[in-house]
Amino acid sequence: MKTIKFAIGIILVLFIASACNSDSKADTWTKEDTTKWTQSCLKFMESNGVEKEDAVGFCDCMLKKTSEKYTPKEAENLTEDQERKLWESCDYSW
What is the pTM assigned to this prediction? Predict the structure, then answer.
């Protein structure tokens, strides 16, 4: 019984700690924002010859990194350097 309570306690602590990421801007993104961003990313990647499976993985990573750091409005105006840094953080090199 102690083991179960301990495990539940650990899970709660981890959940609370992950929810306390006050620097994240992910909560500013609506479902519509994420859908629009992902569709645009996928279209761009596929038009540049990236296979769909790779494009999906890359766009998922980029959305996660972008939404944590920028609001949707900020993401619309990213510089090439900012995009490159996000790209590198996803560790994709084709």
Answer: 0.70
Contact 55, 45 (CB under 8 A): yes
Q: Around 30, how many Cα atoms within 13 Å sit in the side-chain half-sphere?
A: 4
CA distances from 78 to 11, 26, 36, 94 (A): 36, 16, 16, 22
Give the DSSP per-residue string, 40-66: HHHHHHHHTT--HHHHHHHHHHHHHHH
Whether 27 and 71 have beta carbons less than 8 Å apart is answered as no
DSSP state of 23: T
Query: pLDDT tens digits for 75-93?
Result: 999 999 999 999 898 876 5
| pLDDT (mean) for 56-66 | 94
Structure tokens at 64: 């996660």
